[in-house]
Specification:
It comes from Meloidogyne enterolobii. One of its GO terms (biological process) is chromatin remodeling. InterPro entries: Beta-prop_CAF1B_HIR1, HIR1-like, WD40/YVTN_repeat-like_dom_sf, WD40_repeat_dom_sf, WD40_rpt. This protein has 455 residues and is an alpha+beta fold. Among the domains are: 121 residues, Methylamine Dehydrogenase, Chain H (7 Propeller), CATH 2.130.10.10; 167 residues, 7 Propeller (Methylamine Dehydrogenase, Chain H). A hairpin with a 5-residue loop joins β5 and β6. It is globular.
Length: 455
């Protein structure tokens, strides 16, 4: 398929195996959070998009003849770690941003859930522990209510808990559907319907068979199951948009689209509230268990414990008419009287350095000073800060390198070497693209002068 070039946009190193990655829900911010076998959460932000000739890490055992090879320009994204969050003591299995972008929740095998202030990282708001009504064993999954009132968590103590977000108190605990669940299932990734009307939880059992359990928000009843799995369900992912179809009577009805992944290596698509049977079941997708799922429009990405990612693409005729973000938000407003807002439209106050605003100095992000990356720094500065007003050299340094300027001065030899490379890069950029506003070049010169402050 031409839409997928089968090459990585970026490769981000991590200190251990990664168990979960989630992008921020703000479409204007290229931030993601990673959690893995070490107890540290890492926040990464895209610092720029560059053009690369050829591919990244091409297999050495290629059968393509030299005469048939073509040089292809590909976009490559550069990321830097902006925050490291310390708080857990054991493996982090799941994490996610709240719908309004204010919070980040993470859960771990240390039996705890930590709620982080996403606007003022690395600040912790609270830790949900057993002593406060929390889980007695490792927590394997969580899901934010799209309305913003509840956080659901699931653990290997065979319970699912509902937390109220205005007080961070546990208001419901469910154990019966999970009493016979095997603790060997590593992940319990649940999800809410996009209108918040029900929650679908994995790792449930009914009459000795594995199911995904449906919890109705209205009265928290759980009499319905999604069935047909040979092994435990471990991943549930709802499409973030509602869908619409015309039924036999000619009227339109709204529904939610769920992807369900199981340890039996299958992926099934369910259109709810039709809980009776799935739309489609794809069996033996991987050699091992499904571990996570993610939607993008009508495309579903699925990852497996065997290290493979599969892409499944659907059409409007197969699923239905996907409603827009605004239409889905209107449904939530009618149901709950809560007006949804886009985090990208929300004003971020000047004291908040965790979010990148659409305009202004917060848009700049660079590699650390220990890894100059001359070309990427200069190109990013000239292209991405053309409309930015820099108040001082010290301010630019702090934004570019994430710390205050050091007091010791750089050696003259290092400074001369950098100035030569910076000037060459500046001239090259201006020759390639004459549309860079003057302020972009001015900022580049400020950076060169500013480096006199570097150690």
């Amino acid at each position: 398929m031409p839409a997928y070039n089968n090459h990585p946009m970026a490769r981000i190193p991590h200190s251990s195996s990664i168990n979960c990655v989630r992008w921020t829900r703000d479409p204007s911010s290229k931030r993601l959070v990673c959690g893995g076998d070490d107890p540290v959460l890492c926040i990464y932000e895209c610092t720029g998009v560059f053009t690369s000739m050829g591919s990244i890490d091409q297999p050495s055992s290629s059968t393509t003849l030299p005469s048939e090879q073509q040089e292809i320009l590909r976009k490559v994204e550069n990321y830097r770690c902006t925050h490291k969050l310390f708080g857990h003591t054991l493996d982090v299995l799941h994490l996610d941003w709240s719908p309004d972008g204010k919070y980040l929740a993470s859960c771990s095998l240390d039996n705890s859930i930590i709620i982080w202030n996403a606007r003022k990282l690395p600040e912790k708001l609270t830790t949900l522990k057993q002593s406060g009504g929390g889980h007695s064993r490792g927590v394997k999954g969580l899901a934010w209510d799209p309305v913003g009132r509840f956080l659901a968590t699931q653990a290997e103590d065979n319970t699912l808990k509902i937390w109220q977000t205005d007080s961070w108190t546990c208001v419901h605990t469910f154990s019966e559907p999970f009493a016979e669940s095997a603790i060997s299932t590593l992940f319990c990734r649940m999800d809410w319907s996009p209108d918040g009307c029900f929650l679908v939880a994995p790792c449930a059992m009914n009459n000795g068979g594995p199911t995904a359990k449906i919890f109705m928000r209205k009265d928290w009843a759980y009499s319905r199951d999604l069935v047909g799995f040979r092994k435990a369900v471990c991943a549930v992912r709802a499409h973030p948009h509602c869908f619409q179809r015309t039924n036999y009577s000619g009227t339109n009805s709204n529904f939610a689209c769920f992807a369900i992944g199981s340890r039996d290596r299958s992926i099934s698509i369910w259109l709810m509230p039709n809980f009776a049977r799935p739309l489609v079941v794809v069996e033996k997708v991987f050699k091992d268990s499904v571990v996570d799922l993610s939607w993008c429009d009508l495309t579903l990405a699925a990852s497996s414990k065997d290290g493979v990612v599969r892409i499944l693409k659907f059409s409007d005729n197969e699923i239905g008419n996907m409603l827009s973000t605004q239409e889905t938000a209107s449904i939530i407003e009618k149901l709950y009287g809560i007006k949804q807002h886009n985090t990208s439209d929300e004003h971020i106050n000047n004291n908040d350095d965790s979010f990148s605003s659409t305009n202004g100095i917060q848009n700049i992000a660079f590699p650390s000073s220990s890894d100059f990356g001359y070309t990427s720094i200069c190109e990013s500065l000239a292209r991405r800060t053309a409309e930015t007003t820099i108040n001082s050299e010290e301010e630019l340094f702090k934004v570019a390198f994430g710390r205050e300027p050091p007091k010791r001065r750089v050696s003259m030899e290092m400074l001369k070497r950098f100035v030569r490379k910076a000037k060459r890069q500046k001239n090259g950029i201006e020759q390639q693209n004459n549309s860079i506003p003057p302020n972009g070049s001015e900022n580049l010169l400020i950076l060169v002068k500013m480096l006199k402050l570097m150690e």
